[in-house]
Specification:
Radius of gyration: 18 Å
Structural class: alpha/beta
CATH class: Alpha Beta
Strand content: 15-25%
Strand order of the largest sheet: 3-2-1-4-5
Distance between the termini: 14 Å
Shape: globular
CATH architecture: 2-Layer Sandwich
Largest sheet: 5 strands, mixed
Amino acid sequence: MLPEQHCQRKEIDLYYGDETQISEEGYVPYGWQFKDENICIRSHKGKHINCFGMITRANQFIYETTTPTINSDFIIEQLDKHSLIIKKHTVVVLDNAKIHQSKTLAAMQTIWAKRGLFLFFLPPYSPHLNIIERLWKEIKGRWLQPQDYEDEQHLFYSTKLILDAIGCTLLLNFKPFKLI
């Protein structure tokens, strides 16, 4: 039985975890303009904020941000913190990024299992199976506005407001899991 099925039966809590980076460079997945129209989005290399988050289909969202690059130790710290507050068996779905596959993280899985926290790794090249990817796209493509990228302080403040609002006033409607 898959973790989604156990979660639907309320046997476990199921989170989808991943990390993202939001930078002053901006986010422009696509755009269009009229033939004689000039459109300019100011962008420059600059500061960035990194976020590791975990979300459920019910929009329960847990996150931590940092400006240094997220590494395996940071992920371990977040998962360890989470393992101490869970109420029932919990599965965290992760992709196969190098930082999720470190020896140190693998060694911690035994300790977390005793606390009721388990990791489930997605097959390679399957980001479409991790619902948190949709969250990152919404943050960067819809909830952050072009003016939020004007300076570091504004970007970090706007990002923090958005992250704090997820699950409260900012919600995603995830389709229920179905086996085909």
